[in-house]
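Run: sequence + manganese (II) ion -> complex structure.
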Amino acid sequence: MNDNYQPQPSDRFSFGLWTVGNPGRDPFGDAVRPKLDPISLVKLLAEVGAWGVCLHDNDLVPIDAPARDRDRIVKDFRQACRDLGLVVPMATTNLFTDPIFKDGAFTSNDGRVRAYALQKTMRAIDIGAELGAKIYVFWGGREGTEVDASKDPRTAIERFRECIDYLCSYCIDQGYSLKFALEAKPNEPRGDIFLPTTGHCLAFISTLQHHEMVGVNPEVAHEHMAGLNMHHTVAQAIAMGKLFHVDLNDQIPGRYDQDFRFGSANPKTAFYLVRLLEESGYEGPRHFDSHAYRTEDMDGVRDFARGSMRTYLILKEKARQMREDSEIQDLLSRINKHGGDNAPLMKRYSKDSARKIGELQIDRAGLGAAGLEYERLDQCVNELLFGVRDRERGASAKPPARSRNGRK
Ligand code: GCO
Ligand code: MN
Ligand code: MN
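>> structure
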């Protein structure tokens, strides 16, 4: 393999224990791989060159473990991470596996279930803080319905809000410097999940008491399941200063919840996402929330983990090539007129600027008729991704010599 694509700690690649630890069970078939203990999984991640390991409380500490076992397990895990050179950038709570959560956790109709969800999350936050996590993820996998008569969604959202407000205050009171990241998903395991898209989460955050400590954790698969454009979703989160974490994987829209390796199904979408993350100055973890195909053994899991990071780094290099590709850059500068001479007028309303805009002579018909060269642009990007561009000249291997008006 090409050494230029070896992961470095500065790349901030992380994996959940549940990702490389996924034994390949699905609704139709049993596990195909052994269930490895957390420390063996950290060893595997160190071996493939990951920087971080993330976890749900019960990936590490069994749900029914007595307090003294919990302390020992967390201590040993922390030591193993230190010894193997991995950090724990993010932690989260499992509020979906146990039958008590069958009708939700924070949005359950039963106050006892909601109180248990709070109790479990406070304990899980303590574990995260002890392991040095900086981000705490909330994925409300069971917060939803199949039967809409069972819950007033307004009440459900209100309960969700109360719980997040409560937990923000808990962190502040404990002196933890954790930030929360809400992860949206439209469905699965519920028929419909509350806060189904990152856009819903962004709107919800603005209603929170401590909105400054809450951001989002968009996931490629979840946005695709909702039929959305992950690149646009992440851009909006960045524009609002709310991209605290990101879940990288892949998903073909309209299928089951696939959790495929990043870039495996939609490499072009993955490219635009990597380009955005890299060029926006995003400094958070690049977290892979996916798992190996069910056809794989543990060597296949290593291939999966290495492949995830390698794809990211290849796409990062492609983004650099795109910045240096003179043909693409020429096209982009022709396309992006940024308002031209009119830009200052449009910055802010004033009576004077409104009058000047009112007097502009704009060539409506001409602008409507002009071609925008997006066919060429898209083909250039495709060819860059296919690896057939001449890097030095920034042109296709056989450039179509065609001038702007179509004449040779
Ligand atoms: C899923 C989700 C989960 C969450 C994880 C962290 O579809 O199952 O993506 O993997 O990301 O529970 O909160
Ligand atoms: Mn998911
Ligand atoms: Mn996820």
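>> summary
The pocket of D-gluconic acid (ligand 1) is lined by residues 92, 137, 139, 141, 183, 185, 219, 247, 257, 289 (CB under 6 Å). Residues 404-408 have pLDDT under 50 and may be disordered.
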